[in-house]
Amino acid sequence: MNHKKDSGFTAVEAIIILLVVIVVGGAGWLVYKHDNKTKPAATNSSTHKSTVSKSSTTTKAPNPYAGWKAFTTQHDKMHVKYPSTWSLADNTAKLGNGYDFFTVTAPDGNSLTFQALVPVGAASPQGPLVAAQSIKFLGQNDYMQYYSNPNTDTITTSYVSTSKSALGTPKTGLKDGSVWDISVDSSKAPVTYAKVANDADFQDAKLIVESAAY
Fold it and tell me: 200-210: per-residue pLDDT in tens?
């Protein structure tokens, strides 16, 4: 009799264990199914946010030459851009030596001159060299040098040079061996070097020089 009771009790325990296994397994399956449904949604949401973030940060930089005019030199066929508010005078024909020579002038009278010529040595600016800033000209790394009036400490003349400290003339690789002499005459509306970075004439002049291309 004792043996039968033991066997019956064991069967009940087996049934309970089986039920527990079924319940736990079912619960686990439901959790797994739920996770598989929610994860893709979360991934899609994060992907969407990432896409929106990238599209909002990849904005195009404004074109500094928007609305500017274009000019091509007669002999060297160099192209430059200049502000529509500036005036351009092509003096190539007046020079009459087969070299290009033109000047663009700002509304306040300050001007930027390009002259192609045979190298004859450096010019002699009046006043000390105050500073030099990097500038690109026809793909070449040059410098915009600033010379001041020793009496007023204002910038009156600037040159594009191959040197940071000594006055030189940028080489452009012209077939006839000529080079470009580029200078800024800011005597009409001079500013101190501390104000050059905020001066429209100097910033436009720098952009004009860097727009040069063949």
Answer: 999 999 999 99
